[in-house]
Design a protein that fits this description.
This protein is an alpha/beta fold. It is 32% helix and 25% strand. It has a four-stranded mixed sheet. The protein has a two-stranded parallel ribbon with strand order 1-2.
Length: 155
């Protein structure tokens, strides 16, 4: 059984996520409320995850607010610390420029290489009814494309 850890900073989103996990009796899901930049270094050992998924982080599109972006180089290094060698970091965003910006940050880091998107959970939004997230459903319904970046943790 795969263990899943979800870290959510927004109080309402945290409450919804925790309630949904409980409602569906998902005993393999741990929901933690807080800023991932603080939670992850304090609570997770090196090489403790086979994959990490970051879905739709706030892109902070204005240049003067860019320092608020979650996927700063320091946090990407921290995610590399908790990823097992050969593990994958999956990023999804409805803002293409954010994915491009993250790709530029990754190019400066020796811990990763960009690989073909190997999203392991099948095709989302297909006739089998699976969904990526409620946010993704809303954004695609509004005509936004979903952009991806898949990174492999190097040894």
């Amino acid at each position: 059984e795969q263990r899943i850890v979800a870290v959510e900073e927004g109080l309402r989103r945290f409450a919804k996520l925790a309630a949904s996990a409980e409602k569906h009796d998902l005993s393999n899901v741990l929901v933690i409320g807080g800023d991932a930049r603080l939670v992850i270094p304090r609570h997770f050992d090196a090489a403790s995850f086979g994959s990490v998924v970051v879905l739709f982080p706030d892109p902070w599109p204005k240049r003067r607010h860019a320092f608020n972006r979650l996927l700063q180089p320091e946090f990407l290094v921290e995610l590399a610390r908790i990823l097992q060698p050969g593990g994958h970091l999956y990023l999804k965003s409805d803002v293409e420029s954010y994915i491009v910006w993250v790709g530029e940050q990754i190019a400066r880091l020796p811990q990763y290489r960009v690989v073909e998107d190997r999203w392991p959970w099948g095709q989302v939004g297909t006739e089998d009814g699976r969904t990526l997230s409620l946010f993704a459903d809303r954004q695609t319904g509004l005509g936004y494309d979903i952009h991806s970046l898949c990174l492999e943790r190097l040894p």
